[in-house]
């Protein structure tokens, strides 16, 4: 970490809770390697405070952008001036940047980061069948990127019928005939089952789904990064299934962030 | 600087411009010495954006307090829930902290920092006559602390008659018979002449006052910290006057900040 002075520019990651967020530990060393006079700081914002917090943060002249995590990824789209295609299709965003003209543009790298991570681990989604549990911000982004990445079939599950139907309709509009939705997980036909819910963040959480429903040789992926070994992944391991950890996604998102925030270029003047 | 992670707590310094502000360079090494998982970051906020920015920053759960510098020291008092006595008398504040009950308390350490710095340099204000140029936020704080510190006479000068009269009236109510106000600097009777205007921050600025009006052996003090050698102090030196640099104040404010923000104790839980 370089010295913070009056000239240091800011990025912030918004979440609630925020203590577990790994982005500062990954992005700050990157900023340092690139020789940037900038830091990424965590900011805990409760859901009812999001509108006011973001309105205020947009007034900070040396704040160049935001990363956004649970539970704000869907709601944050309301406070952007424009949505990149991945954010528009997913209905959620995890990064916002200030454009030279002062507008705030939102994009979503959860999906592309996850798909890059799957590919790097040898699980290219092309032609495979997926069961995705959770149709919130992260789930929506993963769904869009998996379909974009060539997934043959995607069964989305969520206990909230409203948001499940809205997501399935949006996905089916763009990728017809490959998406189904249900209130309970449909694992039997899946090659890969993915947890995109927050279940597993806290020690007493129930499993988001029972991995024993998956076929032998199947892959269980979790988007949760801390703890690295969620109860879901431990249970799947014990069943002899292949597991895919949450940190793969963030590792591959780093390059997306660096590009989005122009970290390899000089900062825009304030 | 320690590593910034998701658990790091925040302090911010608000100013416009903010690039010249020294607080991050002084406070962050102090936080590190104290082993605190916290950083102070600069935030540039334009005057018309202050209300919205502060409203937003109050919604950041891990932001424990603000330092405030030019030009926000007066206006910021409107956004505090309570004013400490030094802030109330000066009509300006340079530090706000979140109390355990969620209220925001404002205090002002410009004055006490300046007076401690004068004393440490051998210029105890007790019994001396002062000419103070600038009745803005910093000037008001210095005026109150100089009178509190025993200054025999204080001649305040400002080109804005409204804010000059308001300050003189407030000071005279508390320290009767020792304060006068004027639109032009009255240096002839002064032992110490103080610049409390922003003139000198930028290379082409005119002098805030002509130090040749001061008696031989007089002291010229500047609150400007960067550049360290303002044109005012250079001119005063060339005239054989004693000079007192702006950084003395911040050096002595550090201990005030550490106390105000409880930097030697564990942080309050979010």
Task: Provide an overview of this structure.
The structure is a homodimer of 270-residue chains. Helices cover 31% and strands 20% of the residues of chain A. With 270 residues, chain A is an alpha/beta fold. Chain A folds into 2 domains: 109 residues, Leucine Dehydrogenase, chain A, domain 1 (Rossmann fold); 139 residues, Rossmann fold. In chain A, the strands form 2 sheets. In chain A, strands 2-1-3-5-6-4 form a 6-stranded mixed beta sheet. In chain A, strands 9-8-7-10-11-12 form a 6-stranded parallel beta sheet, with helices on both faces. In chain A, β7, α5 and β8 form a beta-alpha-beta unit. The two termini of chain A are 23 Å apart. Chains A and B meet through β1, α1, β2 and α2 of A and β1, α1, β2 and α2 of B.
**Order of neighbouring strands in the sheet with most strands of chain A:** 2-1-3-5-6-4
CATH superfamily of the largest domain in chain A: NAD(P)-binding Rossmann-like Domain
Global structural class of chain A: alpha/beta
Number of domains of chain A: 2
* Percent range for β-strand residues of chain A: 15-25%
Using the 3D structure, state the CATH architecture of the largest domain in chain A.
3-Layer(aba) Sandwich
Spatial gap, N to C terminus of chain A: 23 Å
Classified by CATH, the class of the largest domain in chain A is: Alpha Beta
Order of helices and strands of chain A: EHEHEEHEEHEHEHEEEHEH
How is the main sheet of chain A built?
6 strands, mixed
